[in-house]
Amino acid sequence: MRQRSVFSLIAVGAIALLLIGSAIFYWLLPRNTPSLIVKGSSISEPSAAIFVPKQAPVMVSMLVNPERLQALSGDKVFSVLQTSVLANSDINYQKDIQPWLGEEITLAVTTPDIDRDNQNGLQPGYLMALATAQPIKSREFVDLLFSQRVLAGNQLAVEEYQGVKLIYDHPQSTTSKDNPKPAKALKPLASALVGNSFVLFANDPQVLRNAVNNVQAPDVNLPSSPQYQTAIQQLPKAPLLATIFLNFPAMAQWQGLQLVDPVYDSQMVSLKLSNQGLLAETTILAASQQLPLSPSLSTPTAALKWIPDTAGLVLTGKDLSNLANTALAQFWNQTTTALSGSNGDTITQWVKPLADVKNPWKIDLSQDILSWIRGEYALGLLPSHGQKAPDWILVVDKSDGEAGISRLDKIASSSGLSINSFPLDQQKLLAWTQIQPAATSKDSKQDKSFDIEAQIRGLHTSVGDYEIFASSIAAMDQVLTTEENRLIKNSSFQNSLNAIPSPNQGYVYLDWKNGQEIIKQELPIIQLFSALGKPFLSKLLSKSHPERVSLVLSSDSSNTDFLKASLLLHQD
After folding, report:
1. For the whole model, what pTM was predicted?
2. pLDDT > 90? residue 484
3. Dihedral of CA 222/224/230/234: which sign?
């Protein structure tokens, strides 16, 4: 197998760099700074896509000059560039690159295997395209960079290809008395200046030749892909911070994964800064079959008015009866199946708090709960405050679910729970209780204890058109007695919703301060992202007056050709 270039670090880390790094840049800004970035680049799509083949696994583009971000991030923006292209050189970014660098940096994995020869292993092709504002200075930079590589012991080759000058490390370099081995081996590098627009770097000259071919034979480049064009048309208006395009079959091949009859074949993600926060919008395109349509909402669900603003995690929308067949569930299933190699129970992963209910009650989640929730719903998880599991509140439109609600009472009764009614703040509640002997101390002198205690396993009540379920009296009390502290009245929540495109299928809302422990319990994968962002989160949350950080995720599948989703990170 050929030695893999450090461009692999760029390609693998590029998505995380832009998604996590861009968020960090924003959260570390003074509150009046976002406009400085928003008013920057007017680029609406990556120009360097013409160098990338349509079958490329991934392309990531930063569409703003890094100089605008340098003051905010120190050297973070340039760390990947410094450790790859500029490794073991005396190149100074401020002196040698900044004067000519333009408004775009594009990174791409162009192919899973450059020579398409399985006998010698896979060697992915990696391409970096830097926009140039001053071609003469950028040409001087390339000459300087490779002259330093010669001084380090590398042999160079120069080639004229289709009118473009290529310069790269000679693949047949040998160590001899006249050509001693470099003190520190350099990774393979190839470069070209294409026209007066871009400086290209690659891990193999064949990647550059293919890039030149893609420009001169435009029917093979990424912009010629119908899926890419559809995704481009769905991008929000400029200025954009970054875009990411993924080709799922090629991605799977590159990563050694299996996609069996995929529903989706590609995805476009865009990042944009606004006064509300960092907005990521994505378009996920169907492979061939038409996607199922789902009901959309143009305004927040009325069920939200019963969720208190102490909730750490909230899910709200309309119609859970067909959850497993929705476009979003199919995308989740495709992704988890490719990663795990087997089909899983996507329903219980999506609504785990409800799935947990079935353990003591022998409830079939799909049949006994989801099947009759055809109207609006809102599910809120409250901080546990030391409990093993968070309190939950489920609000559903009962107009077509009376039979389902009665069925839950029957299941509770048949599972050995008692159905008792009692008032709370003049509101009649029905509670599912478990009667058991009261706990007594081991040191008690009494031979027997005839005391009993009732543990509430859940309760519900009717309020107007809605049935409200809760896991505890304390949770229900918050619903009934904190009218002025409802989530729907929270300014942070309202600002977040205003930035999310409408119509949509509802929201997933996370208040980081109240909900970080909840999501770590319910979604273990969040532990990974929490670890990756630990330095940032520690700095943010260690302030004397921690600011409220929230995340809103929304989706819309009102189109049969693609699924759209939006994610907003917001800070008060």
Report:
1. 0.78
2. no
3. positive
SS3 50: helix
User: Which residue, among 108, 131, 127, has the nearest Cα to 198 in the 3D structure?
Assistant: 131
CA angle 566, 564, 127 (to 5 degrees): 85
SS3 string of 267-287? EEEEEEEECCEEEEEEEEEEC
Q: How far is CA 420 from CA 325, 434, 472, in A?
A: 37, 10, 14
Helix count (H) and strand count (E) of the chain? Answer: 18, 20
Task: Name the nearest CA neighbour of 394 among 308, 321, 468.
Answer: 468
On whether the CB atoms of residues 555 and 564 are closer than 8 A, the answer is yes
Give me the helices (H) in 290-424, please: 327-340, 346-350, 352-355, 358-361, 402-414
Question: What are φ and ψ of residue 52, in 5° steps?
Answer: -100, 130
Q: What is the DSSP string of 466-522?
A: EEEEESSHHHHHHHHH-GGGBGGG-HHHHHHHHHS-SSBSEEEEEEHHHHHHHHHHH
Report the 10 Å Cβ neighbour count for 242: 25
What's phi and psi for 269, nearest 5 deg? -120, 135
Q: What is the chain's mean pLDDT, rounded?
A: 75
Phi and psi for 14 in degrees, rounded to 5? -65, -45
Torsion of CA 361, 362, 367, 371, to 10 degrees: 20
Q: DSSP assignment, residue 543?
A: S
Residue matched to tokens 């007056």: 545
Least-confidence region, from 109-113, 132-136, 314-318, 550-554: 550-554
pLDDT digits (tens, 9 = 90+) for 53-68: 999 999 989 888 877 6
Helix (H, G, I), strand (E, B) or coil at 184: coil
Say how far apart CA 381 and CA 310 lie, in whole Å. 9
Length of the chain, please?
A: 572
Kindly give, in sequence order, each residue whose CB lies less than 8 Å from that of residue 414, ignoring residues fewer than 6 positions away: none
Q: Which DSSP letter does residue 356 get?
A: T
C-beta separation of 469 from 401 below 8 A? no
Q: Rounded CA gap, 13 and 244, in Å? A: 12
Q: Given a cut of 70, is residue 158 above it in pLDDT?
A: yes
Contact 490, 305 (CB under 8 A): no
For residue 273, the Cα-to-chain-centroid distance in whole angstroms is: 16
Residue 260, both tokens: 């069996």
Query: Cis peptide before 503, with omega less than 30 degrees from 0?
Result: yes
Q: CB count, 10 Å around CB of 191?
A: 23
Q: What is the pLDDT of residues 117-147, one digit of tens each?
A: 777 777 889 999 999 999 999 999 999 889 9
Segment among 91-100, 186-195, 412-421, 508-517 with least mean pLDDT = 508-517
* pLDDT above 90: residue 439: no
> What residues are paired with 282 via a beta bridge?
269, 565
SS3 content of the chain, % helix, strand, coil (to 5): 35, 30, 35
Name the percent of the chain lying above pLDDT 90: 21
The mean per-residue pLDDT over the stretch 105-124 comes to: 84
